[in-house]
Amino acid sequence: MPTRHISEHGFLADGRSAALVDRDGSVDWWCPPRFDAPSVFGRLLDEDAGHWSIRPEGESTSTRSYLDDALVLRTVFATATGTVAVTDALALEPGARGHDIGMRSPRVLARLVEGLTGEVAMRVDYAPRFEYGRVGAYLTERDGVIRATAGACRLELRADVPLTIAGGAATGRFTARAGSTHRFTLGYAPTYAGAEPALPDAAEVIAETVAGWRSWSALHDYQGEYRDEVRRSALAVQGMTYAPSGAVVAAATTSVPERLGGDRNYDYRYVWLRDFSLTLQALWRAACPDEADRQFTWVARAMGRIGDEPVPIMYGVEGERDLTEHDLDHLAGYAGSRPVLVGNDAWRQRQNDVLGEVLDAAWLMRYYLDPMSPEVRDLLRTLADQAERGWHRPDAGMWEARGPQRHYVSSKVECWTALDRAVRFGSRIGEPADVARWAAARDEVRAAVLARGWNERVGAYTGAFGSDDLDASVLVMPLVGFLPAGDRRMRATMDLLERRLSRDGLLRRFDGDPAGFVICSFWLAAGLAEAGELNRARRLFERLAARANDLGLYAEQIDPDTGEQMGNFPQAYSHIGLITAAGRITDAAARAASSR
Fold this sequence. Notes:
6-hairpin_glycosidase_sf, 596 residues, 6hp_glycosidase-like_sf, hydrolase, three-stranded antiparallel beta sheet
């Protein structure tokens, strides 16, 4: 199977799902009902799993960009005979603005072809494949609309150029001339829902979608350092938000591997409490936190009442709990990397760090949670109690190890964070006796980490109690306030991590990690800023910012040898790291200026 490099794709979103479009004009991924639904275009994972391309017939080069402050992609193709632009958008509901975008998106993919100069011979290839490529649909044409129906899925394509149906695909050729416009609209609807797929005019869809995204961006005007990078990352993270619930998925794809040919090919189209909480913290800097109560209420409802069992750490976008993993063994996999997985068995794990991440986000947004709803109060109290009772237990850690559980230092630190923030909340979430219990446990955790997390032989805080192995997850220690970044041991840890695990600015999580992990690299930049090393922090940040693809997007990891992005895409965690580092650099610069 040809490698369709993940970083060669642009990202479209509509508050329900996402589409990926490569630089040759091929839609290689789209799951129209919602992020974790079966794909109708899945060529990202198998050449025969469906795609929709619009591109020049002959040789061409392409440049692309987002229209300002909008997830609307414009690709300009240059050929020997002329130039042509293809503009792509997943439709927002007409008239939707600000925080209402994505709530009622019509599930429409619109494509507009505009001749710019000369004449360019163009080709359309439309090959939908339902159920992750398992099902080829019957294509029929009526009144200029091509219908594809199979199983629970129904697509309708309206094009203003003639298309010829052959089997389960349709093709067409046309000429784009300077000043010409050609419209394509693809609508989705469930087969038995009764409603027809929407087929609005493509030009109107693009205009409305641009207006909708720009109205959202206007509410979220970050003014710190690296403004353009932060605004682009905030927009990407918003694009991974399932608007009806407010939940943020970790990534738009499944089974893009950490290493080509490897088997760590997981499905990231779900909501991790860790990622969700860090997203809220990041968007607090890059966006207005007007929906904090709604988002925390979603977490409380998704979690339900929790007793002594481990807190569920991940959910479907509407709060589903059972995300059992299974193999799509009919697919060849990204660049031949198998298995191709749907679902993610990490939902069964104990990951103690999520307790601190949720409470830390709540503390940051405390003023926006006032008055606090009973659901949110119960959620925060439950998480604090879990940290008090369970901090001493081993867990799978934030890297979701599928082997034996361990006493990960970062998990202990985040339990301390949970207890510390609960104590600060005080009577807003607990009785005086509760606060006293949480404070005592907080001090126990701190003492344990300082005594058992530090490895004198290694000269650093290591990944787990009693371990000699370095782990970049300990970089959260200064970011949550457990230790100042300038602390002697913390500085020694940061320096050793950089020397042993970093290459060309890319920091691996641990020895044996196949590539640099983007958020860890940004955490190091944030830690350097907190330690007062602003010049080093800025240099590292700028090297990392230059590693994004041409649209400013990141996958999960980057190979320092090839520069190739790896892992699911776009990765919310990576963009959260950028926003966090930019904010810490901005804060450190302000402190430095005020101390002069």
